[in-house]
Amino acid sequence: MSASRARPRIDPRGPRFVAAITAVLLLVVVFLALTGAAVAALVLLTALAALFAWGAFAGAGRHPFGLLFKRFVRPRLAAPAELEDPAPPTFAQGVGLFVSLVGVILGLVGLSGGLAAAAAAAFIAAFLNAVFDYCLGCQLYLLLVRAGLLGRRGTPAGTA
Amino acid sequence: MEPFTALVVILALVLSATALGLVWRAQQGRIAPVAGDVITPTDVASEVPFGRDATLLLFSTELCARCPGTSRLLAGVAGSRPGVAHLNVDLTHRADLANRYGVMQTPTTLILDGTGRVRARIGGVPHRAGIARHLDDLTGSSHVRLAS
């Protein structure tokens, strides 16, 4: 099993905390876009895309909301049952970056409805992650591998 | 759109996401009995032989947060039962295996009987008790076969 790479293992509740705040902000984006506040929606979604980029490139353990979790929330909680590899939540941040960028581009060309739809899609993923502990890397990554878009070929598979 | 209408849309969005989550959670870890194909260690490029009575075959990828814990759970179950083997198949580099066995999510666990035939399939993190019960049934039926 390839567990830890270069990055240190993280508290699995951190990414869920990040997803909860992100989900609320994405709902605000949807609301702004629906009520005609197109510029405000675009600005907020761009800010969220920047946060996703931060999480995707610096790693889920260094997300700004994650630092908030480490500083203020984690000291009040019991130690987690186990730590986890930051690679799966970092992948989820990358997916969030892609979807929110699509929304930003749609907003820039004046398609407010498209921006709202992209924000709604990102909201569903973030909400499922925060509330139900849904893991995007467990499903979407595999489907992208199956579609031939990710993953490499030709290496042995089975181990004990 | 009026702010009130927009709020109704937002509420509908939250409710549908909740419904989606409840449906998803209800299906996680459920053991589905199947009458499947026979898998050999060569099929999944396994370095380890299958178990005499049963094999717990875990499909994972490098980006699956739940797979390391599931692997430990299966190793624990297999370790306490002689004749039951456990192995991990990393699909990161083997899209062909994911397609052949129709794996839609990780972790996905297959329970194989002593002949390598797929007898059950579990999507998501399995429950230890459910797996133990299924293995009891499997090994029990093989005892009956031996006796007759």
Structure description:
The complex is a heterodimer of chains A (160) and B (148). By secondary structure, chain A is mainly alpha-helical. Chain A has one domain. Chain A contains six helices and one strand; from the N terminus they run H-H-H-H-H-H-E. The radius of gyration of chain A is 17 Å and the shape is globular. The termini of chain A are close together. The model of chain A has no long low-confidence stretch (mean pLDDT 89). Chain B contains four helices and five strands. Chain B has one domain: Glutaredoxin (3-Layer(aba) Sandwich). In chain B, 39% of the residues are buried. In chain B, a hairpin with a 4-residue loop joins strand 4 and strand 5. The radius of gyration of chain B is 19 Å and the shape is elongated. Chain B is an alpha+beta fold. In chain B, strands 1-5-4-2-3 form a five-stranded mixed beta sheet, with helices on one face. The longest helix of chain B is centred in the first third of the chain and has 25 residues. The chains are: A mainly alpha (160), B alpha+beta (148). Chains A and B meet through helix 1, helix 4, helix 5, helix 6 and strand 1 of A and helix 1, helix 2, strand 3 and helix 3 of B. Strand 1 of chain A pairs antiparallel with strand 3 of chain B, so a sheet runs across the interface. Chain A: This is DUF4395 domain-containing protein. Chain A: It comes from Cryobacterium tagatosivorans. Chain A: InterPro entries: DUF4395. Chain A: It holds the Pfam family DUF4395. Chain A: Keywords: Membrane, Transmembrane, Transmembrane helix.
